[in-house]
């Protein structure tokens, strides 16, 4: 399993700074909040020899030791005493965060597994180096009332298109059912429930700006699943490790499943 890198921590750290009082945050608080986001496992969770903290804690401390934020002009570290100080986000850092906030929200609000977060933040960082724009597909924009007013209309349109094509792809004999429990809203509610379903993103779905939308959606179909709201919530019940389809299906009582 790949280790967490300093570069993967940059955007989440900038978000945490920007959301903190006076846009300042200490290393201790930053470490606690980043641990809650990435939930380190494996070698990252190992305790350092002769210390009480983990190898992940060391990576967070290295953000200061290696001047990671300063290299990009995103934040500065202000020393207030011996081994004491705080990070303060710069205007450049706020601009970079603003440009990527839709991606950060998408990744952190959808309870993706830690490995998927790491890979996705790598893509975002590499995107900065290549000067390419990343576009997202966020199912939440098609579920939450008013969400489309917060994000760009293009994100809403892309997400809706993926949703519609996914529903068409998974529809059988004119009906769409939950892939986990097989609940059919049209069968239960009649015409009022026709086409009602949520689309679960098993892994983050991205595309680069110059990529054909249809090509990306075609690849994404194997990465999304139609599920009912109940099963969708249960998939994400353990926020650090979302359940895969076989796992959620195995937890459904045979007395209540709607599957044949």
Give the DSSP E fraction (strand runs of 2 or more residues).
Answer: 5-15%
What is the string of helix and strand elements?
A: HEHHHEEHHEHHHHEEHEHH
Side by side, the strands of the main sheet go 1-3-2
Write down the Rg. Answer: 21 Å
Secondary-structure-derived class: mainly alpha
Total E-strand runs? 7
Which descriptor suits the 3D outline? elongated
Number of helices: 13
> How would a crystallographer describe the biggest sheet?
3 strands, antiparallel
Given as residue ranges, the uncertain stretches (5+ residues, pLDDT < 50) are 142-151
What is the share of helical residues?
A: 40-55%
C-alpha termini separation: 39 Å
Averaged pLDDT: 86
